[in-house]
């Protein structure tokens, strides 16, 4: 009995040849998949965090509480839509749309599987592909940031405005590091096409070959998703609800939808770029020849996708919210310099390998240099902490000087007689009175 030959792996030339009904079916399938993923992600998150906190979680709406997400969506749709008087109504209504639509667009370039037969047509299990497909995801993520910033600005609320400003700074910081983590993948794959990147991982996943890039991406995708521990734009303990404080009903639901779709998109992108995409893990692919053909790869892709979603949920239930200065320091002072150094190292190794040099010596010298740089950075950080995090002296209004903040942030030292113009009991307040009367 002859075994049918598997269809070749898709390439860029495999796209643009489908009939209109097949293209429309793919778009509809991706839309339905994202909506169902959002509903299931909400249920999974509540159940997992409930178990972590020794409680039950949703168990009333539907069997095992599976319809809880659908019930929440219906509730939000039927709630009264409250629009404050002072808001910029056009921008206020447009902001949730700007935030939600790019989240759907990003998933169009994610490959779900190889070439399969659908009603007699050979087609890749992917919406479409581009020579710069990964850059499309970064562009859509940047567009989504506009929705958050516009929501904060148009709400005419200080809490919303602060949340929008935080989101802008956070996304800028972490998108740069995220883009740098992709560069090493592009160097090894030789393409920015998601199809080409998956094909380049036929022998070994990039998560193994480019482990530092993978780790940087894992951190940056948490900052990009605005979730705990990096949910500063909507920190309930500081900003009530952040950028969406003034939103209700369907407008709030669109922000909610965009957050969970971004969760799925970031997880799918990590799967595509670093975990071999739809390809089966090594033990399965080596034992079973048909593991990477037909519809089976969809199963491997979904397993990797949900593994990342579980990772997001686990972090939310385990880690506290970081301080804003810690968030910015991690992005600008650690992730970006590290990513730039790693890219230089990868490019150098690739160039020397192409010229036929001994890579053992190169790897040893690279490890020595990296270790020296890490030791110097740790020593510099320890010296800075010993000086009181910069050792700056804040001048007081009476001509004196406040002592250094004793490692505390943002609480001033308790032993300071004057600090930023606030006089403690028993201190001389003459200078403050003179300043207030305009004598100085």
Automatic annotation (TrEMBL):
Record membrane topology: Multi-pass membrane protein
GO CC field: plasma membrane
Keyword NAD: yes
Regions that span the bilayer: 20-44, 90-112, 132-153, 174-193, 205-223, 252-275, 295-314, 334-352, 364-383
Keywords: Cell membrane, Membrane, NAD, Quinone, Translocase, Transmembrane, Transmembrane helix, Ubiquinone
GO MF assignments: NADH dehydrogenase activity; oxidoreductase activity, acting on NAD(P)H, quinone or similar compound as acceptor; quinone binding
Any one biological process term the GO annotation gives: aerobic respiration
Keyword DNA-binding: no
EC number from the UniProt entry: 7.1.1.-
Intracellular or extracellular location(s): Cell membrane; Membrane
Catalytic reactions on record: a quinone + NADH + 5 H(+)(in) = a quinol + NAD(+) + 4 H(+)(out)
Function: NDH-1 shuttles electrons from NADH, via FMN and iron-sulfur (Fe-S) centers, to quinones in the respiratory chain. The immediate electron acceptor for the enzyme in this species is believed to be ubiquinone. Couples the redox reaction to proton translocation (for every two electrons transferred, four hydrogen ions are translocated across the cytoplasmic membrane), and thus conserves the redox energy in a proton gradient. This subunit may bind ubiquinone.
Family indicated by similarity: Belongs to the complex I subunit 1 family.
Subunit structure: NDH-1 is composed of 14 different subunits. Subunits NuoA, H, J, K, L, M, N constitute the membrane sector of the complex.
HAMAP family reported in the protein's UniProt record: NDH1_NuoH
Protein name: NADH-quinone oxidoreductase subunit H
Gene: nuoH
